[in-house]
Every structure is written in structure tokens, then in C-alpha cells.
Amino acid sequence: MQFPLSIISSLVTVLTITLQALPIFTLSTCRSFCGNIPIKYPFGIDDGCGAVQFRQMLNCSADLFFITPSGGYKVQSIDYNKKTLTVYDPAMSTCSILQPHHDFIMTDIQSAIMPPSADTVFALLNCSIDSPVLNHYKNLCFNFSGHSCDELYGGCNAFRVFHLLSNSSPPCCFTGYDTVRYMSMNILDCSHYTSIINTDNLKGLGPLDWVYGIKLSYSLPDTGCERCSESGGTCGFDTETQGMMCLCSSSFNATRECGKNC
Ligand SMILES: *[C@@H]1O[C@H](CO)[C@@H](O)[C@H](O)[C@H]1NC(C)=O
Ligand SMILES: *[C@@H]1O[C@H](CO)[C@@H](O)[C@H](O)[C@H]1NC(C)=O
Ligand SMILES: *[C@@H]1O[C@H](CO)[C@@H](O)[C@H](O)[C@H]1NC(C)=O
Ligand SMILES: *[C@@H]1O[C@H](CO)[C@@H](O)[C@H](O)[C@H]1NC(C)=O
């Protein structure tokens, strides 16, 4: 038996109208991984996800990058328990490679909410004798577990050149991020720097065994994310008003928690 053409045609019309009337559903907008790095609150790689204070700090293009005014730095790991994010700047000098210096610059917001951790030490190398950190600001340099400049110049292939060229040991300085933040390398008058993480237990360990990079220590904004995640939602924010929003499903966002919209 054949359906009369008119019935088929009206079915098609009804179907078309129904399909057009359906709201356009978007899939969950927050990716929870970038490669093998989990992305959780307060971070987000899709706009509207995570805490608004951390908006546009990460991008995920094959690898995860931390974006600052001085460039994108590859994220090595995020420790959500210790609230740290470790980045590595491939343009930075380390014990094994000497590269032209390149300031690490963060925005004011970044410096405020995720400054380098206390166990990240910056080593300013090959400083001129006129450097402020050897004169007026010499108290910014500290005793780094008894390590010396000569240890770096002598123990690292990359830094041996400082020793060779000057036939002596040019000064160096172990300091915290604030020194680098407030004075650019040009003002500091040191030709290179490197930074070392996890510095709490480096007494007696030579520079070949240090871990180079920058560890940022972030704080969680107090936006009521717990309530949202306990209700099964994902914390995000309204991209226009920047107000916190609880993302409940692909078709429903609540202001505070899923199940209630008040
Ligand atoms: C929910 O919020 C996200 C992030 O701001 C947004 O991308 C999405 O379009 C919103 N969905 C609805 C249904 O409003
Ligand atoms: C992400 O950051 C990296 C490093 O700065 C850059 O090369 C890449 O183009 C950025 N990707 C997007 C999608 O912005
Ligand atoms: C060390 O610093 C001096 C300036 O104080 C500079 O002329 C020299 O090129 C630097 N050495 C290297 C290997 O960059
Ligand atoms: C630096 O600290 C070490 C202990 O970590 C100590 O043995 C050494 O004497 C100190 N050096 C100076 C110059 O204060």
C-alpha cells in the first residue's frame, strides 16, 4: 500500500516545523582536559568556564599554555591540592642551555592571584658590578641553601662561558620573583637569568640536579563554587556580565546551583 502523496507531504511539513522549533542545543562548553592535564576550577580553557578572574589565562592548542604579556608558557602540570601550576619557558636559560634573556612578565591580576611560589628562586647571572642588586638593593639577594655563583658557572655547561670570557666569576644573585617583576633585566644589569623550582630541599644538591621552571601559586576566588559543584554543576561565569554562573546542562545555567534558579 502506498501513502497518498498529500499525507507524506504534510508529514514532512510537520517534521520540518518541529525541527525548526527545537531550541539549538549546545554541547557542554567546558572541556575538562587539555591533552592529559585536567582542567578544573578555577581554570577554564573555554570562555565562560572556571572563575572569571582566571579568564583567558590558559589556551589549549595541542598543548596547554599559560598566557602572559611576555608570551605563552607551556604548562607542565597543575596540582589542584597544593594549588600550584608549573610552567616552563623554552626560551629561558637553564644549566644545559644558554639563551638570550627574555623577561617573564605577568599582568597585575596574574601577579596578584597567582604569583610565583615561595619555593621558586630566580638566579640572576653575569651581573655587572654596577648592578643594583650588588649595590643599593643587595639585600634582595639571599643565601640560597649555601649555593654559590661559582657552582653555577662551574657546574653548568651553559654558564661556563661567563667564567671563561671574564677569567673571573662575574657576580650573580639568588632572588625572588618580585625583584624581576619590579626591575627588568636591563635595569638589573645582569645578562641572563634562570629560575629553579621546588627549592626547599636543594641543600647539597648541585645545579645539574635542580628543576628549572616557574611554579605559580594560585588562590581560589571566593565565588560559591562549592555549592554549584555539589549540586552537580560546573562553575563558570556569564561572559557578558562576568557574574558567577553554575553550568548545569547544555540547556540550563543557574545563578548559584543546579535544581534551583534563584
Ligand atoms: C551557559 O553558560 C555558558 C558559559 O557562559 C554559555 O556558553 C552557554 O551558552 C550558556 N547556556 C545557556 C543555555 O544559557
Ligand atoms: C596559544 O598560545 C600559544 C603560545 O603562545 C600560541 O602559539 C597559540 O597560537 C595560542 N593558540 C590560540 C588558539 O590562541
Ligand atoms: C656578561 O655580561 C657582560 C656585561 O656585563 C656582557 O658584555 C657579556 O656579553 C656577558 N656575557 C655573555 C656570555 O653574555
Ligand atoms: C648560607 O647558608 C648556609 C646554610 O644553608 C650556611 O652554611 C652558610 O654559612 C651561609 N652563607 C653565608 C654567606 O651566610
What does this structure look like?
This protein is an alpha+beta fold. The protein has a domain at 92-101 and 119-196 and 203-212. It is built from seven helices and 14 strands. It has helices spanning 5-21, 108-113, 149-155, 160-166, 177-182, 185-188, 225-230; strands at 33-34, 37-38, 58-61, 63-68, 71-79, 84-88, 121-127, 173-175, 190-197, 211-212, 214-217, 234-237, 244-249, 252-254. The protein starts with a helix and ends in an 8-residue tail after the last strand. One 2-acetamido-2-deoxy-beta-D-glucopyranose is lined by residues 143, 145-146, 203. Residues 1-21 form the signal peptide. This is non-specific serine/threonine protein kinase. Residues 213-250 form the Wall-associated receptor kinase C-terminal domain. It is an enzyme of class 2 (transferase).
Task: Offer a concise description of the structure.
The protein is α+β, with helices and mostly antiparallel strands and 262 residues long. The protein has helices at residues 5-21, 108-113, 149-155, 160-166, 177-182, 185-188, 225-230, and strands at residues 33-34, 37-38, 58-61, 63-68, 71-79, 84-88, 121-127, 173-175, 190-197, 211-212, 214-217, 234-237, 244-249, 252-254. β5 and β6 (84-88) form a beta hairpin.
